[in-house]
Design brief:
By secondary structure, the protein is mostly beta strands. The protein has a single domain, classed as Roll (Pnp Oxidase, Chain A). The strands form three sheets. It has a seven-stranded antiparallel β-sheet with strand order 3-2-6-9-10-5-4. A three-stranded antiparallel β-sheet has the order 1-11-12, with no helix packed on it. A hairpin with a 2-residue loop joins strand 11 and strand 12.
Length: 193
């Protein structure tokens, strides 16, 4: 296929990306706010650090600074409508848990609940924050994870034959992984992380 040059921003060149729903406690309203992000990444394994980029315009940004903690929640592809709804609404205007009838699970180590529908969730303590362009990178230290046991194999690898993770393509387009394309190449050279 022929390639064309374009200015960055004219396409979602870094997508697809895994959808990560950030949960933050809203103590004033005795609820939890959830918002999807795709600009999220593991940052360190020891200590276990996970980073999420939030626009200062989001209510989630405000609440994460207030409470100093958050959860990250990963959804199956069947929950694309939920991700879209959570991304359309703001916790400033509406209690998303009530409005969308969400089932939440209380935190075990921290006080921030996670989303029951997630195949895996992690409780994160806010360690650092960095201004990165128009976003704030929130660095969370993972305190505890909660996973659907059968979703992972003995090495902790996601069983894509059992769970199809939700990916975002941009512009309200979502996709899952195709388990039939899963490969396990013969080992060559150094082990990969
Ligand atoms: C799939 C998806 C991915 C998103 N990724 C991000 C992101 O990485 N960072 C961000 O600040 N907002 C992102 N958004 C937008 C927020 O989720 C949206 O502004 C949301 O309404 C914020 O809710 P809140 O005001 O309750 O925090 C994304 C939205 C969707 C639907």
């Amino acid at each position: 296929m022929a390639r064309q040059s374009a200015v960055p921003g004219s396409c979602y060149f870094y997508y697809p990306r895994l959808v990560c729903v950030v949960g933050v406690r809203d103590d004033a309203r005795a609820t939890t706010n959830f918002a999807p992000v795709t600009w999220a990444t593991p940052l360190s394994s020891d200590p276990p650090l996970y980073g999420v980029c939030l626009s200062p315009k989001t209510f989630t940004h405000h609440l994460a600074l207030k409470t100093g903690e958050f959860t990250v929640n990963f959804l199956p592809v069947t929950e694309a409508p939920l991700a879209a709804a959570l991304g359309r609404l703001s916790g400033r205007d509406v209690d998303k848990v009530r409005a969308l009838g969400l089932e939440v699970e209380a935190g075990e180590v921290l006080g921030t609940p996670s989303l029951a529908v997630a195949y895996i969730s992690a409780e994160c303590l806010l360690l650092e924050r960095h201004q990165v362009g128009d976003q704030t990178l929130f660095v969370g230290e993972v305190q505890c994870i909660h996973a659907v046991a059968e979703a992972f194999d003995a090495d902790g690898v996601l069983r894509v034959d059992r769970v199809t993770p939700l990916l975002y393509l941009g512009s309200n387009n979502y996709v899952g992984t195709d388990a039939s394309s899963a490969t396990r190449p013969e080992p060559q050279g150094a082990p990969v992380p």
